[in-house]
Amino acid sequence: MAHSPLTEIMNARSIAFYGASNNVSKMGSSQLVTMISNGYPGAIYPIHPSEETVFGLRAYRSVGEIGTPVDLAVIVLPARLVPGVIDELGAAGVRRAVIVTAGFAEVGGADLQDAVNEAAHRAGLRYVGPNCIGVANLHARLNFTVFPFAGEPGSIGMLSHSGTFVTHLMPYLHARRLNYAEAISLGNEGDLDIVDGLQYYASRDQVRVITCYIEAIRRGREFMATAADVSRVKPIVALYAGGTDAGARATASHTAAMAAPEGIIDGLFRQTGIVRASTIEEVFDFACVLSRCAVPRGNRVGILTNSGGPGVLMADAVSRLGLSLPSFSPALQKEIGAFAPGTASLANPVDFTFINDWEAFFSRVPRLIAESGEVDVLLFYGFFGIETFLHYRDHPAVAPSLNPALMEAALRLGTDLQHTIAASLRNLPVPIICSTFLGLDESLIGHLVESGVPFLPTPERAARAAGALCRYGQWRRTHPE
Amino acid sequence: MAHSPLTEIMNARSIAFYGASNNVSKMGSSQLVTMISNGYPGAIYPIHPSEETVFGLRAYRSVGEIGTPVDLAVIVLPARLVPGVIDELGAAGVRRAVIVTAGFAEVGGADLQDAVNEAAHRAGLRYVGPNCIGVANLHARLNFTVFPFAGEPGSIGMLSHSGTFVTHLMPYLHARRLNYAEAISLGNEGDLDIVDGLQYYASRDQVRVITCYIEAIRRGREFMATAADVSRVKPIVALYAGGTDAGARATASHTAAMAAPEGIIDGLFRQTGIVRASTIEEVFDFACVLSRCAVPRGNRVGILTNSGGPGVLMADAVSRLGLSLPSFSPALQKEIGAFAPGTASLANPVDFTFINDWEAFFSRVPRLIAESGEVDVLLFYGFFGIETFLHYRDHPAVAPSLNPALMEAALRLGTDLQHTIAASLRNLPVPIICSTFLGLDESLIGHLVESGVPFLPTPERAARAAGALCRYGQWRRTHPE
Lengths: 481, 481
What we know:
The structure is a homodimer.
Chain A: H1 6-10, E1 14-18, H2 27-37, E2 43-47, E3 53-54, E4 57-58, E5 72-75, H3 82-92, E6 96-99, H4 110-123, E7 126-128, E8 135-137, E9 142-143, E10 156-160, H5 164-167, H6 169-174, E11 180-185, H7 194-202, E12 209-214, H8 220-231, E13 236-240, H9 245-255, H10 262-272, E14 275-277, H11 280-292, E15 301-305, H12 308-320, H13 330-337, E16 350-351, H14 358-370, E17 377-381, H15 387-394, H16 404-411, H17 416-426, E18 432-435, H18 443-450, E19 455-456, H19 459-478
Parallel strand pairs in A: 1-2, 1-5, 5-6, 6-7, 10-11, 10-12, 12-13, 13-14, 15-16, 15-17, 17-18, 18-19
Antiparallel strand pairs in A: 3-4, 8-9, 8-11
Helix pairs in contact in A: 3-4, 7-8, 8-10, 11-19, 12-19, 14-17
């Protein structure tokens, strides 16, 4: 694909910052503070009419005063000042900007937006915004949104018509170890838009799945062509907002967007390989599996569980999604049966009813099913950790009667056995999607999630994510690269 | 309502325990360990053929040997031994049991189930199970499921055809401070069933909402009559599983249940006031608001947010649920406008765009809207904590330039201001449902959740919970107590 103008924005090595002072209660200041806090390694030049320094950085009266080339300008100034600043940037040879400033088309200021575009055209400048919250490339420690981010960068590329779904989601995703690689708050899309974003992320190896929060599609034809191209190489998950009348009323005042009726969107997404999500939570459930799993070769789902209820709920969900839940062959049932308790069901769902041998349940049996050739995706419920055993070990009435060999075996789930399990689950020949009601504070869960095994918080959400994975697999089989 | 036979089970003051030894890897043993660990204050009498003590408790050869009356027997023995044990219980005057043992109707053992029922009839004994995981009354520190529970008891009463949704959910719910008051794993319902469970919970003040995971309804007529009676005094939320062919196949081997087609269930629930949930997660989202909110007087929803995207998603969800999102009167908009930034939208959704005054946004404006008479339920998105400010305060480049008065104001969100906000949000004249992507580790969120303010993890889940609340409100208005 062609070189994207977003490349210089998302990988800027030097930034002129308009609109930050030493008053951190101002938006521009808090954005600069984020950039400093997150350890941006490039040069930052605050532009301020009077301050000598801003948060310890030397401030300049104008971008021309800096004296060296600058890759990017970030603008958080009142709207009426923006066209003049762009003229100044043009004169200084700055060719990229992010305009955070609100007060343009979303509040009826179309004239001012035109003035910005005329100035940008004169200056040969391309920009993101206005009315956005900024951008982040967490791998490059470039983040000038309003919130600092403390965790490891991930592999999700976000394109959002809402700044909230860049900033507020960072701690939410981090709590699941499912972080952004890069995120772009698109705002009103006065210049660079979601089509540019798709093209840019398609070229980025660190982005394994593209997520979109969409309030409006401004260039319909280009969007469809680009999405279809990009879907051939990496998955796009999108949530379309404002499809109802009440939602449309809300988007109009948000990003000046004219929303399309819901029915149109479904067809448009289906034709272009975009995996549609129905909630913001689902966007990231789907992104979790699409970024961590191989593309499946078919729609046959296997279910492995240690308890009946979750097995039933997954079977119901798989069935509603139109996926197949084949009964396992007698040969495979026999192989599984060799490891299972006598009370187990073996046909699919495979329900162990209880776990008699941890290594068998967590490692050997999923491998047996995955290698059988009888399923394309495996749903796996039933994880737990060692916390219950620690509880037993530490209880004064219980501890004296405990069998030391049994305790030692149990505690292996927190040491070598969890490495065995992670290695086994990460290298299966079909995608596996795990679910558990437990958190990352359980040692086994934490270890597996950190190892890249996809986990979702409930069995039904895992099943729906399997549906998304299969939908994308179907697209890829009929639309080769 | 009539006295429930479950009363003596759920509030037993003495328990004979069959099937626990000192080997904690056996199910019965781990269940006894749970009971000990959770500090059960009553008397426990392990019944064992040879051990002198079990986990430090004196063991007995038979229940007759104990010499004092026993309220309840817990049975975790092989299935074929159960009828004989019940005869023994009858002779000793024990009139209640929980039969954990599996291997009855769910694996084709209908004859053995008949033998149990004949023995129970002879003994005048009522029981829960078989093929269940036990019961818990967390307020009474009575819990002999397989997992110990460490948190505070809550106000949810659970009736489940899956033991997993009793045990595995305890840590899941606790992580949201949304705990069970009491939980009953119904198993095969050889005797006491979900109808008895509804009647029992209806009489329990500590149960504010009843949740059900249902695989089959065995006494249809009684279920409908009882559910309709109970729904007049407290809400019932239910998930019906096994509605699809694949799900039905899975339930048959799970609890010997014959599932009903999905369409029938919808009508049945609607006629009886049961709030239907579509996933296990939704059961507890709905239980959260139904246990913490007053019954609303209508379907008019107000939305307050500090950011556009979540506002749009809530507006879309409210609209899809058939609720109304009225535009606010000019008078109310003017009142809200006095506290809002100039960039705010005021019509409904009210979108502050940013928070200029925390006390106004978190306390005064929700109260204005709630007291306006223009809404019946308020959805409130936009919470944050003080962690970002602590991050600023602790950063060497940022700290020296910080305004101390501003920092002091910000840190009030972690001290007195959070008490002001909690007091205000807890006593509004209409129900409020909050949402945030942040966790309970954020001080403000943690404090509000602990104070009983209902919080859900995403704006759409909050909106769907508002839908559940309004549905129940509608039932109550047309079906007075």
